[in-house]
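Bug #77: duplicate submission created two jobs. Keeping one. Sequence:
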Amino acid sequence: MRIYLPATLPLVAELQKSGELGPPPLTAFAVTPSLREWYLDEDIEELEYAAFSEAARASLRLIDADLIAQPRRVVISADVPDQHITPHPELDRAVVRIGTAVPLDWLASVHVDSPDAAPDVAAAAQAVTAADLGDEDAQFAMDSAEGHELEWYGVQEIPEILS
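Kept job's structure:
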C-alpha cells in the first residue's frame, strides 16, 4: 500500500544515516476504507492527494514540536506491504500505523517545500493547533502554507535535499 509519512528535514537526515524510518509504530496516512467512504470522488489520484495533504499538515505538527527543524514540510511516500499496516479511523479517516521500520528501499519519493515557502510554513506550524480548534486567523496561516506545492524528489536525491 502507498503510504505518506509526515517528516521534517532532521528526520530525513536520520533516514539517510540509518537507512530506515523508525522505530515502529509509525503514524502515516493512506487511502483507507474510511477515506474512500467519506470522500465523494472515487478517483484514486484525488484520494491519494487527500491522504498526502493530511501528511503535509501532520508535518507542520512535527515542525512545531522540533526546535531545530527548518520550516519546510516533508512528506515521504513509501510502498509498505499490507501486513505491516493497520488503519486507525478513530484517529482520522486516512491514519494508518506501520508496525515495522520502513527501509530506504520501500521509499518511492520525498516531497519537500521549497525554501521560499519557509515564512508561510513557520507561521502555519505555530498556528496548526489553533487551526485544528477552529481559529479562523490560524486557518488563514494554514491556507497560506498549503498554497505552496511540495516539490518532488527521487529517493536518490536525498543528499541534495539535505545540502
